[in-house]
Amino acid sequence: MTEIERHSYDVVVIGAGGAGLRAAIEARLQGKKTAIISKSLFGKAHTVMAEGGAAAAMGNVNPNDNWKVHFRDTMRGGKFLNNWRMAELHAKEAPDRVWELEHWGALFDRTRDGKISQRNFGGHEYPRLAHVGDRTGLELIRTAQQKIVALQQEDHREFGDYDARLKVWAETTVTRLLKDGDRISGAFGYVRETGRFVVFEAPAVVLATGGIGKAFKVTSNSWEYTGDGHALAMLAGGTLLNMEFVQFHPTGMVWPPSVKGILVTESVRGDRGVLKNSDGKRFMFDYIPEVFKAQYATTEEEGDRWYDDPDNNRRPPELLPRDEVARAINSEVKAGRGSPHGGVFLTVVDRMPGGAEEIRRRLPAMHHQFKELADVDITKEAMEVGPTCHYVMGGVEVDPDTGAALVPGLFAAGECSGGMHGSNRLGGNSLTDLLVFGRRAGLGAAEYIDGLDARPAVPETEIAAARDEALAPFQREGGENPYAVHAELQQTMNELVGIIRKEGELQQALEALDKLRERVANVGVEPVAVNDGRGYHPGWHLALDLRNMLIVSEAIAKAALERRESRGGHTRDDHPGMSAEWRKVNLVCRLDGDRVQLTRQPMPPMRDDLIGLFESDELKKYLTAEEMPGAAGATAADALDKEDDR
Amino acid sequence: MSTVEAPAKTRAQIKERTLRKDNWRKYPLTTFIIFTAWVAYATVRAFWGSAFYVPEFHYLTPFYSPCLNEICNSVTVDGHTGSAAEFGTFLPAETRGWIPFAAVSLPFLLLFRLTCYYYRKAYYRSFWLSPSACAVQEPHKKYTGERRFPLIGQNLHRYFWLAAVLISLVNTYDAILAFHGKDGGFGIGLGTIILVANVVLLWLYTLSCHSCRHIVGGRLKNFSKHPFRYRMWGWVSKINQRHGMYALITLGSLVVADLYVALVASGTISDLRIFN
Amino acid sequence: MSYQAKFRVWRGDEGAGELTDYTVEVNEGEVVLDIIHRLQATQAPDLAVRWNCKAGKCGSCSAEINGMPRLLCMTRMSTFDPDETITVTPVRTFPVIRDLVTDVSFNYQKAQQIPSFDPGDVKPGEFRMRQEDVERSQEFRKCIECFLCNNVCHVIRDHEENKPGFAGPRFLMRIGELEMHPADVADRRNIAQDDHGLGFCNITKCCTEVCPEHIKITDNALIPMKERVVGRRYDPIVWLGSKLGIVKKGQDTPSA
Ligand SMILES: Cc1cc2nc3c(=O)[nH]c(=O)nc-3n(C[C@H](O)[C@H](O)[C@H](O)COP(=O)(O)OP(=O)(O)OC[C@H]3O[C@@H](n4cnc5c(N)ncnc54)[C@H](O)[C@@H]3O)c2cc1C
Ligand code: SF4
Ligand code: SF4
Ligand code: FES
Ligand code: FES
After folding, report:
1. Which chain B residues have any C-beta within 8 angstroms of a chain A C-beta?
2. Euclidean distance between CA atoms C241 and C235, whole angstroms
3. What's the domain range around C32?
4. Is the same domain home to C111 and C91?
5. Contacts with C76 from chain A: Cβ below 8 Å
6. Is it the case that residue A501 has pLDDT exceeding 80?
7. Strand-pair partners of A188
8. Same domain for C17 and C117
């Protein structure tokens, strides 16, 4: 065995999506020597796929908007299960983070008076999403990427080396976090191209590895989303929060089979797109839940008027939060009113004043995507869409202000962290989540290092164990094909832990996962021709990712079985209602050996001034009687409410 | 030495010059044929020295405009005599056959088209084969592009464009004069229509020029501060998308205009009169 | 409606390799990347291919299909004849790692040499730009960095020795993007010509032909940049004007 190369940094950021890049920028701005590690090439992380926009209450389009309204929308969307402090920080800091991007060169679409334009999105009371056509994520990641290059150029001027204080390790995968006692001391990984191992010595590690979608069969997520950060945190002794909440986006492509799951952005609905069943009926009007009755239109005419006159009309029910729309589509298809390929129809044909030309201008990426992949011209035909696994609300349990996980030296931000979105994420809240908490995690890591008296060491035994684990698939002669095991895992999760869940099926899922655990432990791969058999070896990579997907799947299934209510991204057929008692409970997963352990943890009560932002009528829908604020508080809150609604 | 770094690598060695299976030779080949034929025709006609003017209807071929040879002062066709000279005639009659009558405009027009961004693409591909088509290896060992003499001269395109605007004005004047009837007053013939159509196309070609697009507004950073120039830029940008097409059409229209005038002026056919 | 298709895929590493023949199943609606994945799952488990989004958004899956630079995930099988043999090779301009995967670090190095956006003294949140001001640069920011344009450009595809002095269409376009950015205050015209090789480009438009985002690279970025460079250094009137002190010359920004 050749010697393993070591590199020393102050902060190692795992993940080069929006959250990772923002964290790395911050750590570097704090003067820390920083590495960014990414499974894919620089600038290709999953964030490029985000389409709709970044939610920030800048009030550029509707001046009534402010952080309080945004905070309320986020809490409502998450059905009050959000970590309220995160929701508060997010709503307050999002505008600054967006303006900062602009200062780094981002070019958002503009309003007539030259400010950043904002668009409507499901669950947001006002037009709030800063956007660039339907490729906002690309703009975000490219801007952060270019900011990193700008910082590297500064270092190049100062030290003659672009990588002096900020280095990007592209196509490098971390398989283990390393610890010195109870503290983080680094990370272990392999370089994709050569298959060689590398150890990053660092007192602080920021996880920003994104989601878990690849554990499901139908998903809008790419191969990167194997829940690595979730699993790495667990393996290092960290905890995961509320993993049962998985968002199924209502509109994924359903045909052709090879692209099933690919996202159809919500902006299609924000820009007048409507959902119809096979009878040609706009069925969403039948699915407005009680809690939202006041905010949504009851007739097609009112809904249609809303696009031009939002102040005097209520919004169309196509713009309900994602969980509602996904469930509605699911019911329509089950009732036999679906489209030929098992979805429903989403159409913008004849819906825009500017006709086909306007469709092409407002939704260029969607027009392109359907033309190229499905041979459908969305200016003339309806799209066929159905739910697809999209986002995981659950994630690493962190301190809201610093992003610190339970393990000293470990931080997390972005999709792989939990709490911010509660039981359901509003569209557009993720992109600003990445920026707000990416920055805070970078800052948190820098401060943590400043408070250390000595750098933790990386024990040889940890490295050896990590190396052996990574090499194991080559040692298993006649081991099972990783692709087959992966396909089965995805099938299991899709069928038994999907949108609608039942106790029996969840138990079945856990049994199936138990069997899969043995099979995962027995996958084997053959060496390739170059670099000791490990150079750019897709089968081997998958074999290593399976461990992570399995851990995450088990956490999801266990938590889903435990939570006996339906809320946001978790729907129990056998417990259809939302329960105020369950709202007080966070479900926390940790690893015990190779098994996931679940504990209940009380939800910290919301700060008074924040609770005061809601009318008591609304609070009643979510809180238990004891939790309701006293009469005095409520009046003050109502007054405040009127203040900023003006 | 870093061990994680991969060893030095080379490109994939693929012997074939290209693996394209479509008919990629079509574009360079047709362009080659069209341009060669056109250059041959234009050269012959430029030095021909006769059959360029129809005095009865004031038809002057664009290949001879402005007409600067003494001969232009008095041209007789079919019993009608007239002058094709509008800007003086400093070329002695003896230079006929050696120097084209439009000795001032033709070199500029040639340089204008030679440095035109569209023509550059077309002849680099079809004459110089660098590259003849995308993803097809070019035959040259070395390549320096437009960085050195003489090709660095391509950067003077905007001056030739200015010259072309002036010449287009002259051509426009010629076309207006061609509304000349049998009785000396207003009249329209097929020749008039051809000359006017040619001038309109020449303007479309000239105004859709990339340098023009730059000058009218492209060079600005902030369009919103210059609404008028932004509108002009938008208009030029629109026709600029078809610049290559206009470049080719005007090759055709120039030949048609010249040939028609030549045929009428040589008495081979007579002009089809529509009005007077 | 599935059929058996004939594929020839370049297999090899460190430069040496050959086209290997496969017969593989194709189903309705599939793209070339699906077929490559099927090969991986059934016949060639170690076939290396780079991909990520499978939706034409990340620009990872660049390769050459029947000799033309394309994205594997955006090339539908229905565009081929069922009895046609489809050839898939890695991009030619960059060194090959293995099979269809190439080392594209050239592009990241070039990106580092282009001076970044410079907003001058404007504070965050204070920008006022109109839609018409940002539209030109927005077109270039659609770029997904697939580097197919840099791959097809004959300046470096056919002449390895030109690589040091040529940033390729992708990054000449980046210079164009910044030069047209309404809030940028730097001047990169001189380095575009001197350091990044704008003069190599002979506007033969192959970059535009292959761009999967349909960006008009040549017409909207490279030619306007050439015109700007002319304004900066080859325009005799500007030259005369600056000699006479009528035209003020700004500071040239050096390469980073
Ligand atoms: C199709 C689609 C559309 C979306 N649209 C929107 C939208 O309009 N608005 C919105 O707000 N949100 C949207 N989202 C959600 C949002 O894009 C994601 O939640 C967000 O981009 C996640 O960013 P991130 O920084 O957490 O992770 P990512 O951008 O996913 O980055 C993860 C990074 O971690 C790296 N990584 C993972 N594992 C490892 C490992 N083991 N070792 C090393 N590196 C690793 C990966 O290579 C990658 O670089 C959308 C999501 C999808 C899929
Ligand atoms: S137009 Fe210029 S940059 Fe583009 S491929 Fe041709 S030579 Fe290269
Ligand atoms: S400009 Fe087009 S071809 Fe070039 S890298 Fe960007 S997307 Fe790819
Ligand atoms: S005339 Fe063709 S670009 Fe100027
Ligand atoms: S895989 Fe992302 S562009 Fe093809």
Report:
1. 2-6, 224
2. 10
3. 3-101
4. no
5. 372-373, 375
6. yes
7. A176, A199
8. no
